[in-house]
Amino acid sequence: MVICSKCGKREAAFRRESSGESLCLNCLFREMEDTVLKTIRRYQLIASGDRVGIAVSGGKDSLVLMHMLGLFRRQGKIPRDTYLLAFSVNEGQPFSCFYRMSRVDIVKKIADEYGIEYKTFAFKDIYGYTAADISQGLWSKGKNTHMCTICGVLRRRAMNIIGKQHGLTKIATGHNIDDEAQTVMLNVMGNDLKRFAWFGATPENEVDEDKFIPRIKPLRLLREEEIAIYAYYHGIPLMELECPYVYTNPRYKLKFTLAKMERDNPNIKYSLVSFGDNLSKLVRKGVEPTIHKCKYCGYPSSREVCRVCELFQEAGLLDYLTKMERADKQEEPTSSNASTAS
Ligand SMILES: [Zn+2]
Ligand SMILES: [Zn+2]
């Protein structure tokens, strides 16, 4: 029997290759929670009075995030007056990431347990079009844009729109160390130094055109497989129905490349993220603040036309702007959103 190298009492159930430790589940979970709390405190991710949105995809990461933030608030480890709103966005493509959430009941269970509000939104209601509409428009114009790009660009803007409607001060996502390490690799491989300006944990110095409401990533130093174990033992089933588009997403291949590299260098993910954080500090100093405004939607953008409008324009659906205006006007008098935003 291998004994836990932390407590020296219980039987170890998990070997952490990066440190060579063998841990019991108790120590593993406590350490993971401590790591998340340290990230929150070190970068002051959540302050008293914050209204934090939790972006829920239905995957284990965002559910563990929801569980931990609910738990920390109950324990007073983050301010008890923090308002938490979990939300999901239905992209509306045939295999929408939203439909991975075949287990909405689990999301609701966590929400009920910790008194977290939960709402769902749809691209169709926000933009007047679904991701499938845009993809179809792009195809018909001979543009081969990856579905993950469409969903990614529109989801970021949607989070901002939802956040504004609900008076959110931060939006938390379930990104883990694997996601973050992949981002560093992708930025390097794409020779995209500027993108490092918006890499990191801190909501300060936001320069991303889409990041009006600061994004926070409390789980960014947790490893994916440890999150999976945490989820399993906290009643969160692993129902990773992968979006079928993911298999052609460059991130997907990188996952395996990183896993291979990790065999020779167990700390590689941590090193990559730490390198990205340090580089980010340097790059931020040299990046000019965004001063342009998109000529169509008015969002700050480094270019004449922002990425969202560019996609709609290329798909021949730029009338989304008038659809959004109409939706805004219709909503105002009876909106339940308006009442919670105050
Ligand atoms: Zn232990
Ligand atoms: Zn625009």
Automatic annotation (TrEMBL):
GO terms for molecular function: ATP binding; metal ion binding; transferase activity; tRNA binding. Keywords: ATP-binding, Metal-binding, Nucleotide-binding, Transferase, Zinc. It holds the Pfam family ATP_bind_3. The lineage of its organism: Archaea, Thermoproteota, Thermoprotei, Thermoproteales, Thermoproteaceae. It comes from the Archaea. InterPro entries: Ncs6/Tuc1/Ctu1 (IPR000541), Rossmann-like_a/b/a_fold (IPR014729), TilS/TtcA_N (IPR011063), tRNA_thiolation_TtcA_Ctu1 (IPR035107). Zn(2+) 2 binds at C294, C297, C306, C309. Residues 52-238 form the tRNA(Ile)-lysidine/2-thiocytidine synthase N-terminal domain. One of its GO terms (cellular component) is cytosolic tRNA wobble base thiouridylase complex. Zn(2+) 1 binds at C4, C7, C24, C27. This is Arginosuccinate synthase. GO terms for biological process: tRNA wobble position uridine thiolation. ATP binds at A55, V56, S57, D61, V89, G174, D179.
